[in-house]
Amino acid sequence: MTHSERPAGHGPGQAAGEQPAPGRGARKVIVASLVGTSLEWYDFFLYATASAVVFNRLFFPTFNPLVGTLLAFSTAGIGFVARPLGGIIFGHFGDRVGRKQVLVVTLILMGGATFLIGLLPTYAAIGIWAPLLLGLLRFLQGIGLGGEWGGAVLMTLEHGDPQRRGLNASWPQVGVPVGNLLAAAVLGLLNGMLSEQDFLSWGWRVGFLLSGALVLVGLWIRLTIAESPLFAEVVDQGERSSMPLVEVIKRHPRGLLVSMGLRIGTDVAFYTFTSYILVYLTTNLRLNRGVGLTAVLVGSAIELALIPLFGALSDRVGRRPIYAAGVVAAAIWGFVFFPLLDTRSTPVIVLAAAVGLMTHAAMYGPQAAFVAELFSTKLRYSGAAAYQLAGVVSGAIAPIVSIALYRSFGTAYAVSGYVLAMLLITLVALACAPETAHADLRQDHPDTPMAPNPSPS
Prior knowledge:
Blueprint: H1 24-58, H2 65-96, H3 99-119, H4 123-126, H5 129-157, H6 165-193, H7 196-222, H8 229-236, H9 244-251, H10 253-284, H11 289-317, H12 319-341, H13 346-372, H14 380-390, H15 398-409, H16 413-432
Helix pairs in contact: 1-2, 1-3, 1-5, 1-6, 1-7, 1-10, 2-3, 2-5, 2-14, 3-5, 3-7, 5-6, 5-14, 6-7, 6-11, 6-13, 10-11, 10-12, 10-13, 10-14, 10-15, 10-16, 11-12, 11-13, 12-13, 12-16, 15-16
C-alpha cells in the first residue's frame, strides 16, 4: 500500500479524515472491540486456569504435583514471552496498513491455536511431544494476543468523543474479566457436571473446542466496523512511518519506559489474585479446585462492572490519581489476601479475590487510554509493544515466582512482599508519567529526555 492509498474500512462516500458519527459508529466499534478482546482473553485465561487444574496432571504426569504445576505455568508463561513479539509484528502493520485488518488476523490466530489445544493428545499418548506442542500453541496464542490489545484499544480510543477516551478505551479492558469469567465458568461448569475421571479424560477439551465457534462470531462483528479515523488522517497526510518501531524508540523513550512500568505491578497483582490463588488453595490448603474457581468467577464479575467506571472517572479527575489509588490499595490488600485464604472459608475466600480484583480495576480502567495517549497517532500501535514487553517480567513469571517464594520461605507473606515490590515500580512510573487525560491526540509531541514531570492535576 502506498502513502496515497486509503486503508480498508472506509465506506462509500466517507472521507478518510472524517470523524464517524460519535453515537452509533463509536458504539459499534466499542462492541466489536469488547467482543473480540473477550474472546481472545477467554482463550488466554482458559489456558492459565487449565494449567492450575488440568495440564499439570495430563501433560507433566511424571513429576510430583507441585513441580508439575510449576512446569504447566512455565508453558503458560511462554504466551507472555510471545506477546511482545506479537506486539512488534502487528504493531508495525497496524501503523502501516491499519488497525482493523490486523485485528482480524489476530483473532483468527488466537482462536485457531486455542481450538488445536482442545485436540492435542496428552503425555500418555505421545510422550514428550505433548508438552512441546502445548508450548508451541501457547506461543501462537501469545503472538495473537500481543497484537490484539493495541489494536482494540486504539480503535475505541480513536473513535468517538475525545472527552470520553478513558471510558471508551476501558471497554477492551473489560474483555479481561469477561474472558476470565467465561474461562472460569466453563471449566467450573464442566468440573461440576462431570466426574473427576471424565473431566480429565475429555471434559476439559470442551472449553478449548468451543473457541472455534466463538471466533466466527467475533470475526463477523469485527469485519463490519470502519477503520480508525485518526489513522485515516495519517494516511491521507502521507505521514506513515516506514519503520514505526525504530521511530517510536527515538521519539518516545519516556513513553516506552512509563508504559512498561505501569504494567509490571498491575500484572503481578492481577495474577496473584486470579492464578496463584488456585495453586495456593489446591496445593497448600488442599481445598477443592471449585472453591478457587468460584472466587475468581465472582471477583471477575465485580471487576467487569468497575473497569468502565474507573475509566470514566479518569476522564474527570485524571489518569494518574485513579491509577495511584489502585496501586496503593492493591499493595495493602496483598498482605490481607493470604490470611483470608488461610481461613478456608469459601465466603471469605470469595471476598479476598473480589476485593483484590476491585483494586486491579482501579488500575486497569484508566490504563489503556493512559498507555495509548503517551504516543503519537502514527506510532501508537508500535508504542503498545513496550507495554507487552513488560508482561515478560511481570505476569509471565508471577505465579512461578510466587510458588518459588513460598517454597523458599514457607510463608505467603513472601509473596505479599513480592507484590508490594512490583507495585512500587508502578508507582515510580506514575511519578515519571505526564497526565494525558486531556492531551490532544492530533498533536505530535516527542518526549523530552525524561524532563521533570509537572504536578498531577
